Amino acid sequence: QVHLVESGGALVQPGGSLRLSCAASGDIFSMYTMDWYRQAPGKQREWVAGITRGGNRYYSDSAKGRHTVSRDNAKNTMYLQMLTLKHKDTADYCCRASVAGQANWGRGTQITVSS
Fold first, then answer.
1. Cα–Cα distance between 102 and 32 in angstroms, integer?
2. What is the pLDDT of residues 41-67, one digit of tens each?
């Protein structure tokens, strides 16, 4: 199993930017497909972006064009560079590592977009 810890969440003004990190430990990070999810207050958790073991990247419609997912296998870390943040981006962001039908989740990091 892999243990995941997110960081980088903060209070930010609309139009601002943040970079989230998801640090992994306990297993071979490069084996895992990695994803970012978010859950806004009162809403269901939704997928934001993902990156495969081979580095292929995928984005939700809300993330496409604004955010960039990346990974550094040497540092066992996945990132989400977020630009032009909007009020609707306010949520708890967590990462997921999956392989062979199994998934592990981090506990999340909070982003609040507010002026």
1. 10
2. 999 999 999 999 999 999 999 999 999
